[in-house]
Design goal:
Blueprint: E1 7-11, E2 14-18, H1 25-35, H2 37-46, E3 51-52, H3 53-59, H4 65-77, E4 81-85, E5 93-97, H5 99-117, H6 119-130
Antiparallel strand pairs: 1-2, 3-5, 4-5
């Protein structure tokens, strides 16, 4: 909510301020997933191609098996990641980004590019604010 009591809504034409309109719960949930530490890292790893669960786990040092599994399930539920069980003996589980997952990854790269482009400005702003002159 904005201080004047309005909320942001997201529509086909972008963001607008409208009284009483809020971002839907499903959208808030999806945006939170994208913001999760491991969600973005999983998208980045899978953007380079299909990976078995064990390979993905090795690519993400520090992630527990439980957290990796939970995040993969959430991304799969949202249609961003596909899970395939091979018929090998023993069976293997392989993960890959869907077309929509790849589309999201490309947009995340645009956000990273924006952050790199504005890094100096943001660092200066933070320093100015933290020193008390930004209050």
């Amino acid at each position: 909510m904005v201080e004047d009591g309005t909320s942001f809504s997201v529509g086909a034409r972008g963001h607008s301020r409208q009284k009483g309109m809020e971002i839907n719960n499903w959208m808030r949930d999806l945006l939170a997933r994208i913001d999760e530490k491991w969600g973005v890292a999983i998208l980045a790893m899978l953007s380079e191609g299909r990976l078995r669960y064990s390979e993905l786990s090795r690519c993400l040092p520090g992630v527990s098996q439980r957290m990796l599994t939970l995040n993969l399930r959430k991304l799969e539920r949202d249609g961003l990641v596909e899970r395939t069980v091979t018929s090998d003996s023993p069976p293997q589980v392989v993960y890959a980004l869907t077309e929509v997952g790849l589309s999201l990854h490309r947009r995340l790269l645009m956000l990273v590019d924006w952050a790199v482009e504005h890094e100096d400005y943001i660092r200066r702003s933070r320093t100015r604010f933290d020193s008390g002159s930004g209050v």
